[in-house]
Design a protein that fits this description.
about 130 residues, 6 helices, globular
Amino acid sequence: MSQPTIEARLQRKFILMSNDAGIAAQLRAQLPRGWQMVETLDLESLGEFHDILLHRFIFLDLDTLTDDFDPQDAIRQVRMEWMLNVPIFCFGGSQDERDQARLNRADRFFERDEVVERVGQFCHQYRWGE
């Protein structure tokens, strides 16, 4: 297993798990300089668990449900399978979806229109390494 470098650990990036191109574009437009948004619906495509740890947080769209992706499975994979404590910030979803995500140990919940406002706040909060 290769070890992440210090440079890789200091990169400012987060994961967006959504199939909503409009939200992705709005988030990308609000990113502070030096930050990168990695879009995926397959965490394993990013590598192993230690590769996920190189991301400061995850924005998870609870309204994204496809034949190959269930947001609840993504939370369970991060929390239960890999046992990672990467912050998972959910947006959208019904109250039932949010309740299930809470049980699966997601961290915070926002309305769809709030997530774009929050990206700057979270990038500032998780900017450590300056």
